[in-house]
Amino acid sequence: MVRTSQSVRVLGPADVEAALAVIARDPVVNVFADYRTRLTQLDPRWLGGEMWGYHEGDELVSLCHVGANLVPVGAGPEACAAFAERAMRSGPRSSTLVGPREAVEQMWDDLATHWPAPRELRWDQPHLEALRPAEVASDPAVRRTTREQATTLYPACVAMYTEEVGISPEVDGGRDLYRARVNQLIGRGWSFSRIEDGRVLFKAEVACASPSACQVQGVYVDPELRGQGLATAGMAAVVEACQREIAPSVSLYVNAHNTAARAAYARAGFVQTETFSTIMF
C-alpha cells in the first residue's frame, strides 16, 4: 500500500460509531481516545483539535487524536506513516506525542527531522492495570476531594506536575487554566486525597474515563512522608472507589526508572499490560 496522507481524513460526528469500534479493540489502553470521542462526539467545536482517521478502503482502522496530545490509536506501520505525513504537513501543534511505544517510535522516526527537538524523550513507561487484589488494606482516610478543599489541594497538584513534567503548569500564564482543570476534576468526583490539618498527605486524580476503564494520573505523596506506604494504601483506596463508582478497569502509566512508584503500584494490585512512550516538546 502506498503511504500517503490521502488515506487520512478528519473525522466528525458521523464517524463516532466507527471510531468507538476501533477503540474497543483495546478499551483500557485506548481510554483517553474513548473518553474524548464520547465527550465531544468528534465535534471540532468541543474537541479543541481533530481526530484523524486512517482507512483501508472504506474501513476505518486507526485513529490519531490531535490536540494538546498527539495520540495514535490502534495504529500499525502504515497508519503511523500516514499520520506522521499528515502531521508534517499541518505542522506541530501538540505538546506531547504519547501512546503505545511501538506506534510512538514509528511516528517519531518520520517526524524527528521535521518537528522541533523534543524537551524530553520517555521511551519506557510501563502501562499498568489493577488486575490483582491489593496486598494491603485501603486507606480509609482517602476520600473524594471536596470543593472546600480545593485551595488546600492546589499547591500539591502544582508540585506534583512540576516534579513529573519538569516545568510548572503555571508558566506562561497557565495558572488560571490549570486551577480550572483541578477544580473541574474535583467537581466531577475524580479527585481523591488524604488531607489532614491543612496538609495533603496523598492525592491522585482520574484523568479520563469511559464505560470500560479509567486512567489515574497525578499520584502524589508529601515528600516528607514518602516510604511509609501512603501511596500503596492510597492507591488501593482509589482503585476500590473507581471500580465501584467510575469504571470497572483502572489503569495508569509510570516512568520505568521510578522504582519506588512501581513497587507501590504493584503492591496495590497493578500489573504491566503494555509499554507507553511520551515525547515532550
Automatic annotation (TrEMBL):
Pfam name, any one: DUF4081
PROSITE patterns tied to this protein: GNAT
Organism listed in the record: Nocardioides scoriae
Protein name in UniProt: N-acetyltransferase domain-containing protein
Gene3D superfamilies given in the database record: 3.40.630.30
GO molecular function: acyltransferase activity, transferring groups other than amino-acyl groups
Domain N-acetyltransferase: 144-281
